[in-house]
Amino acid sequence: MATHQRAGEITYSHISGLTYKFRIITYTYTPSSADRPAIEVFWGDGSSAIIDRIGKTNLANNISLNEYVAEHTFPSAGNFSITFEDPNRNAGIVNIPNSVNIPFFIETVININPFLGGNSSPVLLNPPIDNGCTQVPYYHNPGAYDPDGDSLSYSLITCRGFEGEDVPGYSMPTTSNIFEIDPITGELTWDSPITAGEYNIAILIKEWRSGIMIGSVVRDMQITIAPCDNVPPEIITITDTCVIAGDTLSFEVIATDANSSLVSLSASGLPMNLSHKPATFHRASGTPPIFSFFIWDTDCKHVRTTPYSVLFKAQDNGPQVNLTSYKTVTIRVIAPAPEGLVATPIANIIELEWDQHFCSEIKGYYIYKRRNSNPFVPEYCETGLAPERGYQLIGTNEGHGNTTFTDDGTVMPLYHGNEYCYRIVAFFADGSESIVSEEVCAYIKNDAPLITHVDVESTSAGEGAVWVRWTNPPELDTVIFPGPYFEYHIFRATSENPSYEMIGSTTSLQDTSYQDFLLNTQELTYYYKVELWTLLNDSLVFIECSDAASSVFIDIASRDRALTLSWSENVPWNNEHYFIYRYNAETEQFDSIAMTSLRSYTDRELENGQEYCYYIISEGAYYLPDTLFPLLNRSQIRCAVPYDNTPPDVPTVTITTDCEVVEIEWVFPDEESYADVKTYYIHYKPTYNTDFAIVDSFSNDGSLCYPYPCYHTIYNAGVITGCFALSAIDSNGNHSALTEVTCFEYDRCLQYRLPNVFTPNDDNVNDIYIPFPYANVQKIDMVIYDRWGLAVFKTTDPDINWDGINQFTKRKSPDGPYYYVCDVFVPTLAGETIIQLVGSITLLRGKQ
Question: What average pLDDT does range 723-744 have in this prediction?
Answer without folding.
Answer: 93
